[in-house]
Design brief:
alpha/beta, two-stranded antiparallel sheet, 9 helices, 8 strands, globular
Length: 212
């Protein structure tokens, strides 16, 4: 891997926040009497927007109701998310090695930017990341290329020198739509077979493979 810019997804790529995500969904779903949704089903929606996830899990398509669910989830996440999130063992060492080599490093996620930054401030020096684009920063969520393209413009990077790293087919589609190379990492619920359907440079067992 010899790119000048590395852009990462967050959930299931840099960190395992599934425990917090499941907890927040479970609270909202139970409040509205959706009692049969499994943890597995919730985890399979990680990486999608909250509205899309709630629609998948409940069958509801009314935008007003889905927006109400999103607002309830956000309030629960303020309490439960960061304390139930853990970085993967090789996240910090990989990011620091990439920076040591002179690469630009950023995050493009459907998760709120403020939540990512508030979590990472405990682990990374101030201004370590060159850019973080969260769900509140774009009009169209992934797999729209908007977030990646915004990052490239902000960083002055070209698609040819950029690698996007993620765990899901949504991430693979995002990279494809943005015209950047994709590296898959098997930290989440998506299998190697599912990722290989999309153009990719590598499918990795862990992030460490980026710097080996």
């Amino acid at each position: 891997m010899n790119y000048k810019t590395y852009l990462f997804d967050f959930d299931y790529t840099l960190a395992d926040s599934s425990r917090g995500i499941v907890k927040c969904f479970r609270i909202v779903l139970t409040r509205h009497q959706y009692l049969t949704v499994t943890d597995e089903a919730i985890k399979r929606t990680i990486g999608k927007t909250l509205e899309e996830s709630f629609s998948i899990l409940t069958g509801i398509t009314d935008p007003t109701q889905l927006e109400a669910f999103r607002k309830e989830y956000r309030l629960e996440a303020d309490v439960h998310m960061n304390v139930n999130t853990r970085l993967f063992p090789d996240t910090l060492s990989t990011l620091k090695e990439l920076k040591k080599r002179g690469a630009r490093v950023g995050i493009i996620s459907t998760k709120y930017r403020f939540r990512i930054l508030s979590y990472l401030e405990e682990y990374l020096p101030e201004n370590f990341l060159d850019i973080v684009v969260g769900g509140e920063d774009v009009k169209a969520p992934k797999p729209s290329p908007e977030g990646v393209k915004f990052a490239l413009e902000h960083l002055g990077s070209s698609p040819e020198e950029t690698l996007y790293i993620g765990d899901s087919t949504v991430d693979a589609e995002t990279a494809q739509n943005a015209g950047v190379d994709f590296a898959g990492v098997l930290n989440g619920m998506t299998t190697a077979e599912e990722l290989r359907v999309y153009p990719h440079k590598i499918i990795m067992q862990n992030l460490r493979e980026l710097v080996q």
